[in-house]
Structures are given as C-alpha cells and as structure tokens.
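The material for today's practical consists of a large collection of protein records. There is nothing in a record beyond a sequence line and a structure line. As an example, a complete record with its sequence and its structure tokens follows:
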Amino acid sequence: MMTLLLFLIIFMVVVVAHEFGHFITAKRNGIHVVEFSVGMGPMIAHFDRGGTCYAIRLLPLGGACIFEGEDQITNPAATKDPSEPLEMQSDEEEEKGKYGISFLKAGVWARIATVFAGPLFNMILGFLVALILVSYNGSDRPVVGQIMENSAAEEAGMQSGDVITRINGERIHLYREVSLISALNSKGNPLALEYERDGVKYSTTLVPRFSTEDNRYYMGIQGGAEIVDVKGLQVFQYAFYETGYVLKATLKSLQMLVMGQLSKNDVSGPVGIAHVVGDSYQEVKAYGPVAVFMRMINLILIISVNLGVMNLLPLPALDGGRLVFLFVEVLRGKPVPPEKESIVHFVGLMLFLLLSVFVMYNDIMNYFIK
C-alpha cells in the first residue's frame, strides 16, 4: 500500500509540473485554457475560475491542460472545413474570447513557448529537487579511490587521489559521470582521460579490459567515496551538476536504445517505475522518514528529467511532435492545415497507446511473472 501511495505522489508531482508549465505559459500569452485537470477519467470535483475549469479526475495517473481550439489539432472529427477562414468565430467562441484567444489564433512563437514549457518545467522541477538533495547529501567528487591490479588504469600510471576532469573531451564534475561512461562503453572503446594530481594536469588514454565474469569492460578504478559538503552558492552549482548528470544519462541511454545496444527489458513504464519505487522504499525505510524522503525526491529528479526529454522527442502526439509542426510553420510562414496535422497526431497517439500496452505487458512479465 505504501509503494502505491508513494508511486502516485511521485507520478502526480511530475505530471502536474509538466501540465503547469503548459498552463502558466498559455496564460501569460493570453491563450484561453479551457481545463486544467489532475488525473484522468471521470471528473469527481471541479471549480471554475476565469473561464478555466480546474478539475480532479478519478484515475490518479496523468493530467491535462486543454486550450480553446486545441481540439482542431488533436481531434480530427472536430476540425473545421479548411475553406473556412480562421478569423471566423461562432457565438460561443466570441463568448470565450473574453478569457483569452484560441490556441490556433495565438502567434506561432507563443504556441512554441506554450508547448515547450511542459518539458521545460520538468527540468525546472528536477533542478529544484536537486537543490534539496545536494544541500542534504552533498555530492560525489570525481576522485579515484582505488586502482585495480592489472587494470588499464594501473597500466596508464593513474594513482589513488587523482581527480578526473575530462573523458573524451567531456567535462566531468561527479564520479557518477565516470561510472556512467564506463558502464555505457559496451564495446570497450579507448577513453581519453584528463586528470589532476597535486595541482598538476595529466592526460592518458585507457583501453578498458573485458571481464568475462561480468560481461562488460572496466577501466580499473573505483571511487565515489569522497563527498563534497555543499555550502552556500555551491548548492546551485552542484544542483546544476546533478540535473545535468540525469539529463546526460537519459540522452546516452536513449542513444543506446535507438542504436540497438539496449533491449526491451531495459525500458520501463508505470508498472516498472512502481516496482522501482517499492524497492527503493524497502531499501531505506529502516533509516527513517528523512532517508525515505530523500530517496523519493531523487526518483522525482530522475523521472521528471526523463519525462521532459521523452516529451521533446520529435514524435507525433508528443510535445516534440507538435514543435516540429510549429517550426515548419515558422519556415513556411503559414501553418500546416489543422486537418493534416490532426491525422498525424491521431496516428501517433494510436501507436503510442500500443507501445504503452507493450511496455506494461513487458513490465508485468519482468516483475511479477518471471
């Protein structure tokens, strides 16, 4: 029961942040928001203010921010005759006009900002959560703690206490970034390292060695034990590093998935996320409420950044897909006909629903049956 409660709280916080980004940006641009809802399915409570219905719906999964005129894009059956000028309004539309303009009548950059704001607010939520995490936990410095015998690092002359600053030209701030690069180096490609020792800068190239026991390549170093006690303005600096690490991990994992280096078992939906929440709770509950809180907000950071990235993918029915059409409008100087865009988003939505069913089935098979 606790697992379900924690999962719903985490999921709703992330989703509400996303929808609030759309909501507040639309309001700032004078776009009429017809409904801002938390949850899905039948409405169980609501109130109206300023022409917007604020609703709570039965199923505590997801949410929505619905704009006036948006159904012309998302619902093919609601699309007007393309020969009818956009300036023409019904009496009902004119009545709604006192609360703002239709989404389709807003300037293209206002619409771009409104669509982009959802994923952006997920990133902002992640950063705010990271502020709490680094304030309480500190952060891991990229310091080598131990060099493994007969390893690539030992052969390259690295020593305990070396501070890694770059790998393949990529700036390193946290030891977890070193671990991430090592773990995702599935082909054992050479790694160009830059590091500091006693204030002197060094560089070397490691060729990771394969472990048949673990079926992966290793650099031959261990670390992560040296923690920075984050104080003052450093909180913002390390919160930025934390958020950047999660963003980097998400992008690298997505790249590997596209390139076929990850399997379907490496992808999780709500069921898989709930399982992770449950496992995390069981691991830390013995350490008290503060430990549970910190672990849960760490999951909020990870899930929120992941949701932001996934929504920016240029796929139909996602925010990224809508942005593609809006940038095409910028280049063409006129919008793509709503009836054509609606068909693309409708097909994308159907495919997305099929994918969701597949991911849910895969999660159930992985966590509850096998």
